[in-house]
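In response to the reviewer comment on reproducibility (Comment 2.3), we provide here a single inverse folding case reported in full, input and output, so that an independent group could reproduce the run without further information from us. The structure tokens appear first.
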């Protein structure tokens, strides 16, 4: 069983590596560089504006340390045939799941420590913490995650697997109690509460014979969420796109469509009804609005506005050849040039709409109207450049 888990872990790692290479291409790495740089800069500029011992800062810390305990899930790497072929391996599957739990816990603890490091400057700005108290804060976060992972292991057991509502409640309540004791009283009390809760979970949830149906379903759901993330950037065979009727968006279809131009109607429908394209565009727009609003007004907000408009345009480009495999589109009595004209129109309208929303949000919490107007002008210029020049370059690549 040890060899089986090691083999599956290697296969799983190679699968993720293959998709990571597609996701983290040159454009996305540059975008992430600017994005995290902007967030770090905004964070550093915001901290000096905080005063010591403000009433709401401790609540923010309690919420943050509760949330980071939810990061990192149990990866069992179980598959559908396992209940048939591994059912006689009672002791072996117990060792297998112990390995899976330790593997998942180590990765999750790394992310937990990173999350605690992110909150540390905020905590030191608003609270007076000694070196020992800082160490205790990290220790509480680590114990909370170990508590969470044991609850996840309990959630796929025969005895406790059917009580999912109880597990979901414990996922949040246990770290919340420890975090509240840590920040509302002091870190040492939080450490005592975290240890007591962890020991109680270990002692009470001891009968952890695997429930195969729940374990396999849980792992399938976890992998599907991973594939959905990758599917935002590249095609994943395991994820099939779906189409939804969105009656509330009829006005958007009418706005994107031009009378007498069938391609504009097809592209407008494809954009609005496709959960993949419209979903990623809407999420990028919302994320861009939040970031530029939180950033101090200045040249950095302009860079983020330009970056997000470019990212939205790149996500729209694969829509151009969506109907290429449909034989009926090739017998339309319409010049091929018209397809490019109609898609260029869609690209211009969608990027213009998103540019307006992001530029409006760039007024920032400091209410800087001048910076917002500058961003409007630059965004308008970028939309023209993207729809007239960048589109032609990308179409040539797509048609090769």
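Designed residues, in position order:
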């Amino acid at each position: 069983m040890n060899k089986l888990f090691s083999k599956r872990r290697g296969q799983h790692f190679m699968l993720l590596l293959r998709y990571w290479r597609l996701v983290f291409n040159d454009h996305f790495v540059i975008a992430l560089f600017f994005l995290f740089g902007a967030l770090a800069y905004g964070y550093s500029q915001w901290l000096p504006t905080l005063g010591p011992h403000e009433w709401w800062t401790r609540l923010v810390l309690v919420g943050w340390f509760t949330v980071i305990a939810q990061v990192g899930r149990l990866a069992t790497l179980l598959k559908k045939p396992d209940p048939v072929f591994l059912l006689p391996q009672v002791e072996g599957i117990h060792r297998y799941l112990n390995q899976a739990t330790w593997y998942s816990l180590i990765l999750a603890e790394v992310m937990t420590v990173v999350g605690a490091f992110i909150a540390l400057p905020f905590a030191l700005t608003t609270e007076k913490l000694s070196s020992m108290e800082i160490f205790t804060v990290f220790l509480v976060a680590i114990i909370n995650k170990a508590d969470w992972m044991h609850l996840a292991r309990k959630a796929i057991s025969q005895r406790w697997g059917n009580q999912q509502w109880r597990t979901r409640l414990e996922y949040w309540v246990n770290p919340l109690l420890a975090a509240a004791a840590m920040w509302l009283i002091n870190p040492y009390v939080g450490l005592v509460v975290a240890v007591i809760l962890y020991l109680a979970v270990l002692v009470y949830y001891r009968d952890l014979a695997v429930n195969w149906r729940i374990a396999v379903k849980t792992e399938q759901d976890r992998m599907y969420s991973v594939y959905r993330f990758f599917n935002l950037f590249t095609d994943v065979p395991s994820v099939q796109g779906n189409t939804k009727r969105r009656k509330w968006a009829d006005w958007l279809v009418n706005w994107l469509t031009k009378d007498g131009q069938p391609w504009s109607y097809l592209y407008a429908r494809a954009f609005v009804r496709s959960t993949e394209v419209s979903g990623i565009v809407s999420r990028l727009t919302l994320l861009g609005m939040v970031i530029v609003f939180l950033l101090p007004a200045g040249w950095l907000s302009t860079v983020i506005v330009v970056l997000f408009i470019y990212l939205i345009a790149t996500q729209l480009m694969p829509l151009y050849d969506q109907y290429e495999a449909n034989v009926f589109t090739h017998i339309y009595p319409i010049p091929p040039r018209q397809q490019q004209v109609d898609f260029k129109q869609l690209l211009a309208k969608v990027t213009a709409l998103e540019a307006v929303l992001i530029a409006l949000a760039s007024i920032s919490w400091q209410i800087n109207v001048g910076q917002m107007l500058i961003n409007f002008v630059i965004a308008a210029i970028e939309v023209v450049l993207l729809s007239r020049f960048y589109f032609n370059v990308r179409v040539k690549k797509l048609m090769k």
